[in-house]
């Protein structure tokens, strides 16, 4: 059977809309009664859960954005008591505080089934050996995929990140058939496997990739070098984690699970776009108990595709993520905001407030980030050891906030171009998506 939960994956549109309406009413009542933030939002708009009579009424409900999550750190948006929370995850944001999300026991089961549904859709089965090379911990990626692969019945290898030679050794020794990681790391694995001359000793047939944007050319490169099929995945911790949307074996757009999420794609005026037009993906959770969100602006730009798919699933489909509505950068699967970098730099006396962010891909096809900063007048002593100390200090401060290694290029004051308009802070030399 090619479906994990066929009753939902192939449900007819009218029946699905009835299910969505039932679940939307329940979710709205839950946040209205248990989350002060939403209670105030509903009342300020003069509405209540009883006013929801159709799916179209979603347009009258309040919006939720990333700053709302940060403003209610850590548990202000939880809709259940802490004793019902069995796990928390967190993601980085523009400030020093992360976005914290909670899960009930039922949320964890729902998430595992959702991930199993995704993996099954990409052709993964209980006979596969699944190597999960994403970060475990507060990041949702590692445990999200892990639980789904185990729920599916696949032998699961919790490899985590790093130690590339060891990763390849496990892939060879265990006969790994499915790899899950970021696309850029897959390319690095490929180059390392070629250097070790073991590509022909690997048994990979499927790869699932997410955490950063990637192009059709990257997909082709990965598929060609490993001789496998590469599938796109999409998720965000604010909704549940990975698993929100996934490619099927047709590799023609990502399916979003309508029984769990109500999908809107809105233009800059907040109006629903027509099929085929691009806009910002806005999602409402329909089954999350601990941390339900209403009309969450993901910041991701996509297009609605025709819902009919040759795979037989009837769920909403979207294109690959085409970019960001805000200025967030994704570097090796980590969210990086220019404002984060600016906040770090302004606290360092030896440099000015002028900076640029340079992005490129190295010879291993992995993202590299360099921050170019100007030295202040009192920092230029002429001693190389003093410059090295400043460089090291800035790099350490950036790494402590960004959780990613950052190169620092110290330049003389006045080197970075000034402008009367908005400063061009980001120069991205990575391949066009």
From TrEMBL:
<keyword id="KW-0597">Phosphoprotein</keyword>
<feature type="domain" description="AMP-dependent ligase C-terminal">
    <location>
        <begin position="333"/>
        <end position="430"/>
    </location>
</feature>
<dbReference type="Pfam" id="PF14535">
    <property type="entry name" value="AMP-binding_C_2"/>
</dbReference>
<protein>
    <submittedName>
        <fullName>Phenylacetate-CoA ligase</fullName>
        <ecNumber>6.2.1.30</ecNumber>
    </submittedName>
</protein>
<keyword id="KW-0547">Nucleotide-binding</keyword>
<dbReference type="GO" id="GO:0000166">
    <property type="term" value="F:nucleotide binding"/>
</dbReference>
<dbReference type="GO" id="GO:0047475">
    <property type="term" value="F:phenylacetate-CoA ligase activity"/>
</dbReference>
<feature type="domain" description="AMP-dependent synthetase/ligase">
    <location>
        <begin position="80"/>
        <end position="283"/>
    </location>
</feature>
<dbReference type="InterPro" id="IPR042099">
    <property type="entry name" value="ANL_N_sf"/>
</dbReference>
<dbReference type="Pfam" id="PF00501">
    <property type="entry name" value="AMP-binding"/>
</dbReference>
<comment type="subunit">
    <text>Monomer.</text>
</comment>
<keyword id="KW-0596">Phosphopantetheine</keyword>
<dbReference type="InterPro" id="IPR028154">
    <property type="entry name" value="AMP-dep_Lig_C"/>
</dbReference>
<dbReference type="InterPro" id="IPR051414">
    <property type="entry name" value="Adenylate-forming_Reductase"/>
</dbReference>
<comment type="pathway">
    <text>Aromatic compound metabolism.</text>
</comment>
<keyword id="KW-0436">Ligase</keyword>
<dbReference type="InterPro" id="IPR011880">
    <property type="entry name" value="PA_CoA_ligase"/>
</dbReference>
<dbReference type="GO" id="GO:0010124">
    <property type="term" value="P:phenylacetate catabolic process"/>
</dbReference>
<dbReference type="InterPro" id="IPR045851">
    <property type="entry name" value="AMP-bd_C_sf"/>
</dbReference>
<dbReference type="InterPro" id="IPR000873">
    <property type="entry name" value="AMP-dep_synth/lig_dom"/>
</dbReference>
């Amino acid at each position: 059977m090619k479906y994990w939960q066929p009753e939902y994956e192939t449900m007819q549109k009218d029946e699905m809309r009835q299910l969505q309406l039932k679940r939307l009413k329940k979710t709205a009542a839950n946040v209205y009664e248990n989350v002060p933030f939403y209670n105030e939002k509903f009342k300020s708009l003069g509405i209540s859960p009883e006013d929801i009579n159709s799916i179209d009424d979603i347009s009258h409900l309040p919006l939720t954005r990333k700053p709302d999550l940060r403003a209610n750190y850590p548990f202000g948006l939880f809709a259940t008591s802490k004793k019902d929370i069995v796990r928390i995850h967190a993601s980085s944001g523009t400030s020093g505080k992360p976005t914290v999300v909670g899960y009930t026991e039922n949320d964890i089961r729902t998430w595992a089934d959702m991930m199993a549904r995704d993996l099954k859709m990409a052709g993964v089965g209980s006979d596969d050996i699944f190597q999960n090379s994403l970060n475990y911990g507060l990041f949702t990626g590692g445990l999200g995929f892990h639980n789904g692969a185990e729920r599916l019945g696949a032998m699961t290898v919790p490899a985590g990140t790093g130690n590339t030679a060891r990763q390849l050794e496990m892939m060879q020794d265990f006969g790994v058939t499915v790899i899950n990681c970021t696309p850029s790391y897959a390319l690095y694995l490929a180059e390392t496997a070629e250097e070790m001359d073991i590509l022909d000793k690997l048994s990979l047939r499927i790869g699932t990739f997410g955490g950063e944007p990637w192009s059709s050319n990257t997909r082709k490169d990965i598929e060609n070098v490993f001789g496998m099929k590469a599938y796109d995945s999409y998720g965000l911790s604010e909704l549940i984690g990975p698993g929100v949307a996934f490619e099927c074996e047709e590799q023609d757009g990502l399916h979003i699970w309508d029984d769990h999420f109500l999908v809107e794609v809105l233009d800059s005026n907040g109006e629903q776009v027509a099929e085929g037009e691009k806009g910002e993906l806005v999602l409402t959770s329909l089954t999350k108990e601990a941390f339900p969100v209403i009309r969450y602006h993901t910041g991701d730009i996509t297009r609605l595709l025709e819902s009919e798919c040759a795979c037989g699933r009837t769920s909403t489909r979207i294109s690959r993520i085409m970019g960001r509505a805000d200025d967030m950068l994704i570097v090796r699967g980590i969210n990086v905001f220019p404002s984060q970098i600016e906040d770090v730099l302004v606290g360092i006396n030896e440099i000015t407030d002028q900076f640029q962010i340079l992005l490129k891909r190295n010879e291993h096809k992995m993202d590299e980030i360099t921050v170019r900063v100007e030295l202040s007048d009192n920092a230029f002593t002429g001693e190389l050891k003093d410059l090295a100390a400043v460089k090291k200090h800035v790099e350490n401060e950036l790494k402590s906030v960004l959780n990613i290694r950052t190169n620092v290029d110290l330049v003389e004051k006045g080197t970075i171009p000034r402008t009367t308009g908005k400063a061009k802070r980001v120069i991205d030399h990575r391949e066009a998506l």
